Amino acid sequence: MSSKVPVAVLGATGAVGQRFISLMENHPWFEVKVLTASERSEGKRYIDAVNWVVPGEIPENAGDLEIRTSDTGESLGDDVKLVFSALPTENAKEIEPALAAKGYLVCSNASAYRMDPLVPLLIPEINPDHVHLIEAQRAQRDWPGLLIAAPNCAVTGIVFPMRALHDAFGVTQMHAVTMQAISGAGYPGVASFDILDNVIPYIKGEEDKVENEPRKLLGRLRDGAIEEAEITISAQTNRVPVMDGHMGVLSIKLGRKARIEEVIEALDSWEAPAAVRDLPSTPERAMVLRREPDRPQSRRDRDVGNGMTISVGRVQECPLLDVKLVSLVHNTLRGAAGGALQNAEWLVASGYLGEIVPETVATAAAR
Amino acid sequence: MSSKVPVAVLGATGAVGQRFISLMENHPWFEVKVLTASERSEGKRYIDAVNWVVPGEIPENAGDLEIRTSDTGESLGDDVKLVFSALPTENAKEIEPALAAKGYLVCSNASAYRMDPLVPLLIPEINPDHVHLIEAQRAQRDWPGLLIAAPNCAVTGIVFPMRALHDAFGVTQMHAVTMQAISGAGYPGVASFDILDNVIPYIKGEEDKVENEPRKLLGRLRDGAIEEAEITISAQTNRVPVMDGHMGVLSIKLGRKARIEEVIEALDSWEAPAAVRDLPSTPERAMVLRREPDRPQSRRDRDVGNGMTISVGRVQECPLLDVKLVSLVHNTLRGAAGGALQNAEWLVASGYLGEIVPETVATAAAR
Amino acid sequence: MSSKVPVAVLGATGAVGQRFISLMENHPWFEVKVLTASERSEGKRYIDAVNWVVPGEIPENAGDLEIRTSDTGESLGDDVKLVFSALPTENAKEIEPALAAKGYLVCSNASAYRMDPLVPLLIPEINPDHVHLIEAQRAQRDWPGLLIAAPNCAVTGIVFPMRALHDAFGVTQMHAVTMQAISGAGYPGVASFDILDNVIPYIKGEEDKVENEPRKLLGRLRDGAIEEAEITISAQTNRVPVMDGHMGVLSIKLGRKARIEEVIEALDSWEAPAAVRDLPSTPERAMVLRREPDRPQSRRDRDVGNGMTISVGRVQECPLLDVKLVSLVHNTLRGAAGGALQNAEWLVASGYLGEIVPETVATAAAR
Amino acid sequence: MSSKVPVAVLGATGAVGQRFISLMENHPWFEVKVLTASERSEGKRYIDAVNWVVPGEIPENAGDLEIRTSDTGESLGDDVKLVFSALPTENAKEIEPALAAKGYLVCSNASAYRMDPLVPLLIPEINPDHVHLIEAQRAQRDWPGLLIAAPNCAVTGIVFPMRALHDAFGVTQMHAVTMQAISGAGYPGVASFDILDNVIPYIKGEEDKVENEPRKLLGRLRDGAIEEAEITISAQTNRVPVMDGHMGVLSIKLGRKARIEEVIEALDSWEAPAAVRDLPSTPERAMVLRREPDRPQSRRDRDVGNGMTISVGRVQECPLLDVKLVSLVHNTLRGAAGGALQNAEWLVASGYLGEIVPETVATAAAR
User: Which of A336, A347, B207, D273 is 20 to 30 Å from D24 by CA-CA measure?
Assistant: First the structure.
């Protein structure tokens, strides 16, 4: 028996699916065993079906896997219980709950169920306890499996400084303008004809996500339900000609007044909850504060902590609300595949994988 | 005698200086006769001294001019009274008032005196009456000449929708995030090493300008002084890898509540004051409202109206303030040389050039 | 009766189709009357069906036209005889000859029939007499209409300096490396995910075209057939992150030795044949020679002559062959829609449109 | 006593100097102890003087070093004998031989002495024996130290496939067109105003280097002198808007005819000499052959082997010479600091550092 948890990646030929496979090439706990894609690719070897667009080469073991269809049937086989979904939203809508109903543990990167009241919207450093919403999910949905979701990529970058400030002072209002990388649109995604030497002040559906998901992420799990944080958010989202890295330009109103030095101190001293610090994908520092006037920058800071560290900076008093700052996230690592992978690690450490976890992994997760 | 007003361009070898020369190649009223630059270029023919970086070729008449120094001496000669300044701020500080004191009429693009209480900060479509602040300037400074300034390039784009909304409903607060083109930093300006595949969330001194200049532009001339508009502005300014075009992402609080349809109508129906519409550099439409969800865009909309038309769009209700929208300006045309040139035209039409205006121009300006 | 020739544009919703429509907005001879696209768009107003991606707004008259299908049926109506084809190659293959067989005069930008021995591959400045290959085409194909083709966009830029050198010294060998803009791939074309911060050393099918089309263009029409020029060409074609402008980096072996000054003189003094100089789309100078060490450049020189002028430069001795130089073409203007439009003008001036030409146009063309 | 060789970096604040420092952060043999820069920075801590532009953070030990001047005096102190030069050419010209004359072992990245007949121009995988030209250098220059040079960044990428083909078939002619990244121009280097959305067909002095340096690199050391390889090269060098990675587009004439399969096999099977394979900076594979039609690509392949592996591909028959191919090098790693660092490692392994090598390093180098 292998010493790792076998996993499936749904939507494996897309850009996020590729990132999942790339990140799990040498993962200490997980091993990719099943890949699915649209019918067009069914039956092909992965290496023959995929147009590999992420950095590095196709991991050898994944390259030889035969692609199955991303449908709701029995196609995932008997060995795999843990499933990463990089499905398009419309497909995720149908497939993800169907798989949970069949007993699969689904860690999704899709937007379909993020705001579902019974689905944990999870970032281990931000709201680790929300994982227990699974109890209510199981009770009410009667699923032998489960479904958890990772938030939108732009939201992921923004919610880290929000968390630190919410803990310290409360956050009641936020104005958020984003400058988002083209990789956020997947592959082929944004046409170069549209974005070279250009800014597009529109990303379909994105403003809604930025205005709503942080409220759930910063909410409280109480009596089997999430009470959303009472924060009013106004978002304007933009596409810029940058490869990776979503920059959030934020202006925040605090629950109680604070001097700018206190705000800086709160951001600088914030740390992820101890329980999640040893997960394999948790970076050494969840968030770093830059004090140079011109940082963080998309290209220069997106790769910090293997793309899992959020960089914030330019903290200033705001003449309108209380504090202005910027926050940068690597959108396809922390903001997509890396985040969903870390969520699965948190599932393991929280005991939700039960007997399918090999002893070595169980021991490591229990450290 | 020539039928055009002879003019000088100070700082003629820089990117804005080049735009001035390019825009006046076939100007109906003005003709470039004197060029100045730093000592290094003194005595050289313009064509030999300049590294021409703006579109098109060096206009023939300018290419042959001998460069003079941008100092405060007699170097501009006797023929020229009207002067366009594209000087760096530190040089403008000393040279511009010295020239005004000698009788020159200085139309500046520099930031040095924009917030000087006796210097009109002018956009003909926005605050044409501010030109009469010159009366107070002359009275108090005892200058035989005069000095007027064009606003910052990012401010120029933002202040058009502000004007329309201020007229209709009053504007009391604004949150402004900008995404600014690299041409705004002049030449050589931003290193490609810094900006390729990157966003830099910092432009030195820019946030102050965006927070202050609109207050003066939208203020009232009363008793020989500008009463600034009481608008609180919070600005965050960013550099993006775009050649030309500054995008302002705005969220605005109105003096009185208005439905979003009224706001849209106010923007759509706003027109420049009739008196300035026939200036040679005034575009057919000062501001156009785009109704597509993804416009304006920097590359696709910056050249509208020969780069003199402001494009606004994405008008939406704002959950925090009242209305969100974006506004785009061509930063080196409307936002720099084109704006300063139009200011000079307004000086002519307002009668400030007196006898130095040839009769044909005077007639045209009087239409 | 209108004073212009009514025309149809096939494949009107694509990027080249849009350029055709844009260029004919104020064309003195032609007027767009019929637009076709794929079945998906059939019956829609053009303005509702098109994702307009080229500069400027959709011309009003075109916006209101109802789209017909690009099939081979009677859908073009009775009024139109002159047809511009911006069809994808696979569609062009079937549709273009079918239309010629029905009596339409087809000016194609597609690659399908460029190397057909009976189809003129035409650039008016380069090989105006090839238009008469139409005689052989009509004789052998028995078409009441006709079909002519414009060359590949990269070829168009390269063949101008080749023509000048071939005329002066003969050209026997050429090594050509291209750096091609993303607009050459149409819309959506190249994914930004693929080309931002990247060079792709491959464009499908392009090297064949660069190695073959110049031989036909520089060939001789003799006895109703083109004798290809005996020039051996080796091509390597690359995609670079540039919006418009294909740069050809050439190394050329001449038929007889020439000093570099003679080569420069031959390039500088070359002029388009007098007969084609008055066509509406012929630029003032077909080719300009730049003498600066760092010109032409893609962004700075592509728009010369409204994008119809070829810019060459960096003429040097070549240690291997005889002469090295670079040549730049605006690939979607001169190299696509603009070139095909000029071909149609040459058809008119050559008398091939017969009675469908209004008298005013006939008179103008006869100048 | 430290277990590493203490080294100095000259020109430490420039982009290449930064790369040296970054690469030696955890180098097993070398430790940065002395940094020099221009007088402006003298006496400052490195962290206060440098505008750090390369990836990652400033290594801690380097950040605290006090900068000395890059002059020829005693400023390097007594502890350091091994010196890396990232000086501008004009400074290198004077300083490098002066240091060699004082007993320093100078590994240069500058172009000043690359073609000096007594200075080894070295790439360990390409011409490891050229290091022994040092014997002649010492004999004739009477230097107690020594001076070796790394080749031009574009040359470095090109010479690997040349080496493989020269070994197998002989190479007699080469046509080389390059598409070079902006980082090759150092910092600030190329203005974004010049290169965004542009190709510049000119890099000062570069074509000479590409035409000459490979002849020396592939030459033979015989009787204390390098006999250059008899290869005629024609180069055309271009700047493209890419961050890192120089692409060489090559067409090569072989000494004896070979089928394309043999050429491919020769490239695929070529390996670096065994003696240099264990140097710390030698990558696992010195050169990889890509068989996809569209690889290598600048962004996707530059980082292979930590930026030390050359990627070649698109091997095809050439209608003019014999074989066409492209070759990609990471210009600031393999092509600059990484290459010069590996040269120093080869000096160590070749015994040229003598007693200044700690025993642990000597042992490692002797493996």
Answer: D273
Q: How far is C243 from chain D (nearest CA, A)?
A: 6
Q: Is B293 an interface residue toward C (CB < 8 Å)?
A: no
**Rg of chain D over all Cα atoms, to the nearest angstrom:** 20
Write the pLDDT tens digit of every residue in D209-243: 999 999 999 999 999 999 999 999 999 999 999 99
Say whether residue A300 is in contact with chain B using an 8 A CB cutoff.
yes
Per-residue pLDDT, C73: 67
Cβ contacts below 8 Å, chain C against chain D, sum to: 129
Number of Cβ atoms within 10 Å of the Cβ of A323: 24
Chain B interface includes C303 (CB < 8 A): yes
Question: Residues 322..351 of B with a Cβ closer than 8 Å to A: which?
Answer: 324, 326
Tell me which chain C residues have a C-beta less than 8 angstroms from the C-beta of A190. 191-193
B131-187: pLDDT as tens digits: 999 999 999 999 999 999 999 999 999 999 999 999 999 999 999 999 999 999 999
Homologous superfamily of the A153-330 domain (CATH): Dihydrodipicolinate Reductase; domain 2 (3.30.360.10)
ipTM (interface pTM): 0.96
CATH topology of domain A5-150+336-365: Rossmann fold (3.40.50)
| CA terminus-to-terminus distance, chain A | 23
Across A346-366, average pLDDT: 86
Flag if B303 and C197 touch (Cβ within 8 Å). Answer: no
Domain boundaries, chain D: 5-150+336-365, 154-330
Mutate: best of B182, B244, B320, B330, partner A, most A CBs <10 A: B320
Q: Which of C232, C234, C294 sits opposite D201 (nearest CB)?
A: C294
Can you say whether residue A300 is alpha, beta or left, with left for phi > 0 and alpha for psi between -120 and 50 degrees? alpha
Whether the CB of C193 is below 8 Å from some CB of chain A: the reply is: yes
Q: Which among A198, A211, A234 has the least Cβ separation from residue B251?
A: A234
Question: Taking the alpha carbons of D296, D299, D303, D308 in that order, is the dihedral positive or negative?
Answer: positive
- Report the DSSP beta bridge partners of residue D174: D233, D252
Which of B200, D178, B121, D101 has its CA nearest to residue A245?
B200
The answer to whether residue C318 is catalytic is no
Side-chain-side CA neighbours of C169 within 13 Å: the count stands at 24
The Cα–Cα gap between A10 and B10 comes to 63
Please name the residues between 160 and 179 in chain B that touch chain A, using a CB distance below 8 Å: 173-175, 177, 179
Residue D326 phi/psi, 5-degree rounding, is -125, 155
- When pLDDT is cut at 50, 70 and 90, the band that residue D74 belongs to is low
So which residues of D are the catalytic ones? 153, 246
Task: Give residue A184's pLDDT band: very low, low, confident or very high (50, 70, 90).
Answer: very high
Q: Measured between CA atoms, how close is C123 to chain A, in angstroms?
A: 27
Check whether D355 has a pLDDT greater than 90: no
C336 DSSP assignment: I
CATH of D154-330, one of 3.40.50.300, 1.10.630.10, 3.30.300.30, 3.30.360.10: 3.30.360.10
Establish whether A246 is a catalytic residue.
yes
- B68-123 per-position pLDDT tens digit: 998 776 678 888 999 999 999 999 999 999 999 999 999 999 999 999 999 999 99
Q: Given CB atoms, is B248 within the 8 Å cutoff of chain A?
A: no
3-state secondary structure of C321: coil
pLDDT tens by residue, C61-106: 899 999 999 877 667 888 899 999 999 999 999 999 999 999 999 9
Residues of chain C falling short of pLDDT 70 = 1, 73-74, 367
Task: Output the pLDDT for position B74.
Answer: 65
Distance CA D203, CA C297 (A): 13
Q: Tell me if D182 and B192 make a contact (CB, 8 A cut-off).
A: yes
| Residue A303 contacts D, CB cutoff 8 Å | yes
CA distance D309 to D157: 9
